[in-house]
Specification:
The complex is a heterotetramer, with two copies of chain A (145 residues) and two copies of chain B (409 residues). Chain A is of the alpha+beta class. Chain A has a single domain, classed as Sufe protein. Chain: A. In chain A, a hairpin with a 6-residue loop joins strand 1 and strand 2. In chain A, helix 1 packs across helix 2 and helix 3 runs antiparallel to helix 5. In chain A, 39% of the residues are buried. With 409 residues, chain B is of the alpha/beta class. Chain B has two domains: 134 residues, Aspartate Aminotransferase, domain 1, CATH 3.90.1150.10; 245 residues, Type I PLP-dependent aspartate aminotransferase-like (Major domain) (Aspartate Aminotransferase, domain 2), CATH 3.40.640. Chain B is built from 15 helices and 17 strands. In chain B, the strands form five sheets. Chain B has a seven-stranded mixed β-sheet, sandwiched between helices. The longest helix of chain B has 21 residues. The radius of gyration of chain B is 22 Å and the shape is globular. Classes of the chains: A alpha+beta (145), B alpha/beta (409). Chains B and C meet through helix 2, helix 3, helix 4, helix 5 and strand 11 of B and helix 2, helix 3, helix 4, helix 5 and strand 11 of C. The structure holds pyridoxal-5'-phosphate (2 copies). One pyridoxal-5'-phosphate sits at the interface of chains C and B. Chains A, D: GO terms for molecular function: iron ion binding; iron-sulfur cluster binding. Chains A, D: This is SUF system NifU family Fe-S cluster assembly protein. Chains A, D: It comes from Massilimicrobiota timonensis.
């Protein structure tokens, strides 16, 4: 677990994922579900792809144009949920959203995603910090249909 | 508990405003309504304390505006009990809303020989756009007959509907005759035949409980200024699927998500695609405040009290020989004339006693073909009116013959 | 004499409003402007003291509203020096005005193969309606090239015009690059060829003297909220003969003088035919008050002071290595980026120091094809900004690289 | 001249012209100029006809639907200007408008039209009291073109 009280560390996490985003780049593979997430009030515009294997999230990909907050939160998300079951992913998502919306959450489970714990102080960035996550939610829902 | 004297304290215009030296007696609520202090304050609050743009900018002030604006949408949703807040589109008023429906939905869904049903009691704003859309598409406008009192009944709707009927556009309460249409029954009948029901709620939404899910209407239009809100703001409600299938009548900033120089445009989802440009922000906020104010008093209580006022007034008017009332049994405005006095001269007489009522055709200019009088007087109440005001009104009715008094006082 | 400290006292938002703990430095005036106390008061005055309907009713209150409303029209006429007050149409904003021109004039006057000229720097509200009107009529939208700095020149207009050109629709000052178009020359050239010139004045009318008779433009659109007025109100100016020859985009109460159940409609003369429904009364009144306020300060002085501010700011910015300015020599907003920082992240950093600036495409979404950057930051001034505010802004520009500070303060 | 201070008398003048309008009814004669005057803010709607003989106003006719103030002011106007030269009529019109808009005027020249001296107290009636008169003005102007 990362120290919650070391802004320098949290900041480095965000910069690291912004400058070296993990799982970035789309694949040309019909077995992935795909969604375009574009924030209607800002510039972020990402395509998200998820491959499910039964109950499992086998892969997460994304690409597009987005700010640091959006890019790195999506990168961290992709690492966190890859290989997890939908149920496990849902628990991570729930905790993340709780953190963003200032409710109780379990920092342990969020790992690097705790870097976004201050988002509420700049409420206009919430849309950036959740864009990729909401894309995942939408695709998980779609996979159930 | 409904306490009109307490309520009147909320309205600056009822505390000191005079007309021709008399305290204002405002009986033209069908045209527009007075504003309670809370609404005035919420408008000023925006202008004074957080006057930024909504849906724009990347700083806290803009976010603050956004939150207020979207919160207003949510309050409107509650007020009419819509399923989702995305079904609430802010417009500049009923007229704008009805035009958006006619040109945005009607124009894109009607074809030659389709039929649009309206009544002769509709307001110009629920008549002229349909004439024009009919002209453009080759569809035709037909009239549902009113019964002999001027009421819209399910039976007459059933008689008027044909295989070709695609849209029924009617006022829930009409602005001159004030009858309530049986919206729920009409919708049920219409929906069994795939007909879309457009409701002009300008005179109903301010005065009674509105539940769009219960009546199941497809579109609803109403204005803020007729329900204690600011002018220049109104609402178009539409079922989400219908909105998705509809073209905006104004294009521009905020309505599109992407486009390029070749003209390929991607519209945003409802309601944003219909709100191009900077919206009337303090209008939306003021309207939401008005709705909260009305809900706090209670729409049921408001409705009941207004009916009590109307009964009280009608009973007194029916005792006067020189007064002709055209709609004793409806629930909205009272349409009447002073016998032998041209309506405009009569309105002037009322004015000279500080009483605001309206004369004319009330923008329902084809109604004269039904009422067979070319103009009427209209007295319309709101929950802040009192029996004492009605007594004063009745006294002036009695003076009708001396209408030139107004000119020589 | 122009005294900014005196002027700032008129604006409640400049006296106490904070953002992220810092006094607000508002540099997003291209999006919307702050409101002086007199405007707030005139809006409240209507809502509090004479909140009746205009053009309606037959009593003194309604007459009083009418007088204020028409007086507001006269003040707008003065402000832009129109020939007649009947050439002033109140709308809900620039977007509404531009759509009214495109659909009310363009749609009825364009035919297949006619050409509409715009530029890639136009705001979405002066682009999308023309795309749609072109689609509906078979006309085509062509682009006038900007020069290498992003400026619209007469030469390039001349090169773009063909026999088929019917309409030129351009911003007098564009909202991202802020260059001033030579409107008078363009009009002269266009009128010799029977071409109608539509001007988007959203970013020019608030900041400089506007004289529609001198430039001889045919149509002008602008918004109240970008010039110290309320939201939800704007103006469409049109030469009277053009207005007479134009179709309203909204039909309804107040716009028609007569009609019958057969659909025969007689429209009123301009401007009334374009103002169907209850207008935004306190909006018109508030806008007129804003214009009086601006005229009292003097539009020339305002313009001069804003240019001085811009020069001051540009000079400081050009000294910074980490800042790229896209339009050092224009006169409107400053378009720039902090090198290596995504615009939205940068805006966030400014926010954390209480500075409101905007990031994005600024509703001129096809400009990226010209600037070759997909998004920029935009700082836009108004006459109440100061050099001290610019100094603070420059300090944050310098901190650009630490943009995540905003997140960890 | 009528007593300016006897409301009863002024009132009788108005009622008399309302109930028995003079020169009412249009004629089917192309030598008349014609105009429709309909107030855009109220209900009054009159057609006005004027026959000019050179510089002289030979006849004035009108018909339509209008309130008492509008009807009787038009009736009185028709009597006042019939047989007068345009110049004479213009003088009467100027005085009438001055009276309506609370400027100096000569009551003598207005004869029965002084019945409308109180119009300014009910400013919303100005449109009624001037509709017919404005029709005359428009037709006089047209006759010069
Ligand atoms: C150049 C230009 N045109 C049009 C508009 C649209 O103005 P409004 O949002 O007030 O309709 C704007 C404002 O953003 C603008 O800058
Ligand atoms: C039944 C009805 N529909 C529509 C309207 C138009 O409302 P607005 O003038 O607010 O657009 C009115 C108001 O006069 C009305 O009474």
């Amino acid at each position: 677990m990362h120290s919650l009280n070391d802004p320098q560390l949290l900041r480095e996490i965000i910069m690291d994922h912004y400058e070296h985003p993990r799982n970035r780049g789309l694949v040309d593979d019909d077995s992935y579900l795909k969604i375009n997430m574009n924030s209607q009030t800002c510039i972020d515009n990402l395509d998200i792809q998820v491959k499910f294997d039964g109950d499992k999230i086998e892969d997460v990909r994304y690409d597009g144009e987005a700010c640091a907050i959006c890019t790195s939160s999506t990168s961290i998300m992709s690492e966190l949920v890859k290989g997890k079951t939908k149920q496990e992913a849902q628990k991570i998502i729930d905790n993340y959203m709780n953190m963003i919306y200032e409710k109780d959450y379990d920092p342990e489970i969020l790992e690097e995603a705790i870097a976004f714990q201050n988002t509420y102080k700049q409420a206009n960035r919430i849309k950036c910090a959740t864009l990729g996550w909401n894309g995942l939610v939408a695709l998980m829902k779609e996979s159930e249909e | 508990m409904f306490d009109v004297n307490q309520i009147r304290k909320d309205f600056p215009m009822l505390n000191g405003k005079k007309m021709q030296g008399h305290p204002l007696i405002y009986l033209d609520n069908g045209a527009t309504t007075l504003k309670p202090q809370v609404v005035i304050e919420s408008v000023c609050d925006y202008l004074t304390n957080y006057s930024g743009n909504a849906h724009r900018g990347d700083y806290d002030l803009s976010h603050e505006v956004d939150e207020h604006y979207e919160q207003s949408r949510e309050i409107v949703r509650q007020f009419i009990n819509a399923k989702r807040k995305e079904e609430i589109v802010f417009t500049s008023g009923s007229t704008d809303s009805l035009n958006m429906i006619a040109y945005g939905y009607g124009l894109t869904h009607l074809k030659a020989n389709d039929e649009i049903l309206i009544t002769v009691a509709e307001h110009a704003s629920n008549t002229l756009p349909w004439f024009d859309v009919a002209r453009l598409t080759g569809a035709t406008v037909h009239y549902i007959n009113l019964d002999e009192t001027g009421r819209l009944t399910l039976e007459n709707v059933q008689k008027a509907v044909t295989e070709k009927t695609k849209i029924i556009a009617v006022a829930e309460v009409t602005n001159v005759l004030g009858y309530q249409a049986p919206m729920k029954d009409i919708c049920q009948f219409a929906h069994e035949r795939g007909i879309v029901v457009v409701v002009d709620g300008a005179q109903s939404v301010p005065h009674q409980v509105t539940d769009v899910q219960d009546t199941d209407i497809d579109f609803l239009a109403f204005s803020g200024h007729k329900m204690c809100g600011p002018t220049g703001i109104g609402v178009m409600y539409g079922k989400y699927d219908l909105l998705k299938d509809m073209k905006p009548t104004r294009l521009g900033g905020g309505a599109n998500s992407r486009y390029n120089s070749c003209g390929v445009v991607t519209l945003k989802d409802p309601p944003y695609r219909f709100e191009a440009g900077t919206p009337h922000i303090e209008g939306a906020i003021g309207l939401a405040t008005a709705m909260q104010y009305l809900m706090k008093i209670g729409m049921n209580d408001i409705h009941e009290y207004e009916q009590e006022l109307r009964q009280y007034c009608i009973q007194k008017m029916l005792q006067l020989d020189n007064v002709q009332v055209y709609n004793p049994h409806s629930m909205g405005a009272i349409a009447f004339n002073i016998k032998g006095v041209f309506s405009q001269d009569a309105a002037s007489l009322f004015n000279s006693y500080g009483i605001a009522i309206r004369a004319g055709q009330h923008c329902a200019k084809i109604l004269d073909e039904f009422l067979k009088v070319s103009t009427t007087l209209r007295a319309s109440f709101y929950f802040y009116n009192t029996k004492e005001e009605i007594d004063a009104f009745i006294e002036v009715c009695k003076k009708g013959d001396d209408f030139l008094d107004a000119f020589f006082k």
